[in-house]
Amino acid sequence: MTEAAQPGPADGRRFGGGSAPWLLREPARPRRVASSPRAPSLVVATVCIGAFIGQLDASIVSIALPAIGRDLGGTIGQIEWVALPIC
Predict the structure, then answer these.
(1) What number is the average pLDDT over the span 55-77?
(2) Tens digit of each residue's pLDDT (9 = 90 or more) over 10-50
(3) Contact 83, 61 (CB under 8 A)
(4) Engineered SS bond to 78: which of 39, 64, 68, 74, CB 3.0-4.6 Å?
C-alpha cells in the first residue's frame, strides 16, 4: 500500500496502541456549511431519503423473489439468500 492509501487519520497517526481519539472527532465543517441555516434540514432530508430508498429496495427484492426463483430454478430456501443481505 502506498503512504497515501493507508488507513488512518490524515496527519499520519497510526492505528493501534489503545484508543483512537481522532476517530471520535468529526473534522471541522467547511465555513459555507457551518454558516448555512439550512444545513441541519439538509442532513435530515438526506438521511430520510436514504432510509426510504433502502426500504424501497428491500420491498422490490421481496416482491421479485418468486420470479427470481422461477427464472433461476431455485428452491425457496435458496432464493431467500438473495434477500437476506438486503432485509
Answers:
(1) 88
(2) 555 555 555 667 778 888 888 888 899 999 999 999 999 99
(3) yes
(4) 74
Task: Map grid coordinates 437476506 to a residue.
Answer: 84
Q: Which residues contact 58 (CB under 8 A, 6 or more apart)?
A: 83, 86, 87
CA angle 43/45/49 to nearest 5° reads: 120
Cα–Cα dist 80/75, whole Å: 9
**77 Cβ partners below 8 Å, 6+ apart?**
none
Say if residue 54's pLDDT is above 80.
Answer: yes
* Terminal CA-CA length for the chain: 35
Q: How far apart are CA 78 and CA 36, in angstroms?
A: 50
CB burial string 74-87: b at 16+ within 10 A, e below: eeeeebeebeeeee
Residue 3 has pLDDT above 90, yes or no: no
